[in-house]
Amino acid sequence: AMKLQSPQFQALFTPGLRSVADLFEKKNYELRIAGGAVRDLLSGMTPQDIDFATTATPAEMKEMFTSAGVRLINNKGEKHGTITARVHEQNFEITTLRIDVVTDGRHAEVEFTTDWEKDAERRDLTVNSMFLGLDGMLYDFFNGYEDLKNKKIRFVGKASERIQEDYLRILRYFRFYGRITEKPGDHEASTLQAVKENAKGLAGISGERIWVELKKILLGNHVNHLVRLMYELDIARYVGLPLDGSLEEFDRVTKHIQNLCPKPMTVLTSLLKVKDDVTNLDLRLKISKEEKNLGLFLVKHRQELTKAAGPEPLRPYQDFIMDSREANTNSKICELLKYQGEEHLLREMQQWTVPTFPVSGHDLRKMGVSSGKEIGTALQQLREEWKKSGYHMDKEELLSCLKKL
């Protein structure tokens, strides 16, 4: 048996967790860490959030917490068996072990159990199906630890059964593949077969849930391999990707973009050919307005807005920002530079502050230009001169320029 005693594991024992553990121990209910947090701890990482599992029912937990004067946070998780307790300024999400009784490919009706293996059996992937006792003891019914060490992603039990319980698991398979495995193409043939046979089940999954998974896939490793696989296994059309996505462009863009911290939409846009592709993506995935605008911006400008030859390669981008009337053009231009793989220009751009035009209508009035129309024209001309100077001319130079004009 394996016992974990890593610093990351020790660090979990806050005053809050100690109090919670004591309560469960007094009542003889078992409490263990579950799922993703176990996977992270075994990989030597500090888990972002920790789910706990227990043999106590929701009613028993409520009774126990309430009589100990612990505040319960009213989450809607209770019908799935989850209670959230707030102890020492920390939230603890604790879920009763359960069995899925009926599943429809989207959600499950559950009944509670005290059998840890039965609960592990209804989880998606072996690396997510382990439990960790608070003494560091690992409970691993499906060789998840072996798979994690060998960097293998496999479904618990039969792939097709797990997928039919919730078709989103197809995308979770891809996401964890991109997170854990070392090389592309290391799949079990039977898994890919099960994915292919069940792909159209994804048509019934909400766009919002799909987009959450897709974004993580786009920012993970092997994204190129995984997206090609989505086309080969006929998943692409059910998740809003264009039927004839430009895989060559996707290849080109994904090669250099991973290290530049792109937004998911920036990576995805390389598959899209025309602005209708962005619209269709939005219809299926309900992407945010900002994401949609970024996609439209990149599709429109990725070809012709490029660096200048000569000593000021950044100039076209800077001019674009200066001429734009929109607030977040700067961040869109940075995404465009990532898309184009212009790492050096991106760094320069991130250090560049948008200069402020130094002349105001007030300055012109002082110089005796009185009519509003003339002021408007003069300001426009001066702006042009300022732009030609690379935004270097100051107020004095511009005003003396006005005298010449």
UniProtKB/TrEMBL annotation:
<keyword id="KW-0460">Magnesium</keyword>
<dbReference type="GO" id="GO:0000049">
    <property type="term" value="F:tRNA binding"/>
</dbReference>
<dbReference type="GO" id="GO:0005739">
    <property type="term" value="C:mitochondrion"/>
</dbReference>
<keyword id="KW-0548">Nucleotidyltransferase</keyword>
<keyword id="KW-0479">Metal-binding</keyword>
<dbReference type="GO" id="GO:0000166">
    <property type="term" value="F:nucleotide binding"/>
</dbReference>
<dbReference type="InterPro" id="IPR050264">
    <property type="entry name" value="Bact_CCA-adding_enz_type3_sf"/>
</dbReference>
<dbReference type="InterPro" id="IPR043519">
    <property type="entry name" value="NT_sf"/>
</dbReference>
<keyword id="KW-0808">Transferase</keyword>
<protein>
    <submittedName>
        <fullName>TRNT1 nucleotidyltransferase</fullName>
    </submittedName>
</protein>
<dbReference type="GO" id="GO:0001680">
    <property type="term" value="P:tRNA 3'-terminal CCA addition"/>
</dbReference>
<keyword id="KW-0819">tRNA processing</keyword>
<dbReference type="Pfam" id="PF01743">
    <property type="entry name" value="PolyA_pol"/>
</dbReference>
<feature type="domain" description="Poly A polymerase head">
    <location>
        <begin position="31"/>
        <end position="154"/>
    </location>
</feature>
<feature type="domain" description="tRNA nucleotidyltransferase/poly(A) polymerase RNA and SrmB- binding">
    <location>
        <begin position="188"/>
        <end position="239"/>
    </location>
</feature>
<keyword id="KW-0547">Nucleotide-binding</keyword>
<dbReference type="InterPro" id="IPR002646">
    <property type="entry name" value="PolA_pol_head_dom"/>
</dbReference>
<keyword id="KW-0694">RNA-binding</keyword>
<dbReference type="InterPro" id="IPR032828">
    <property type="entry name" value="PolyA_RNA-bd"/>
</dbReference>
<dbReference type="Pfam" id="PF12627">
    <property type="entry name" value="PolyA_pol_RNAbd"/>
</dbReference>
<dbReference type="GO" id="GO:1990180">
    <property type="term" value="P:mitochondrial tRNA 3'-end processing"/>
</dbReference>
<comment type="similarity">
    <text>Belongs to the tRNA nucleotidyltransferase/poly(A) polymerase family.</text>
</comment>
<dbReference type="GO" id="GO:0046872">
    <property type="term" value="F:metal ion binding"/>
</dbReference>
<dbReference type="GO" id="GO:0016779">
    <property type="term" value="F:nucleotidyltransferase activity"/>
</dbReference>
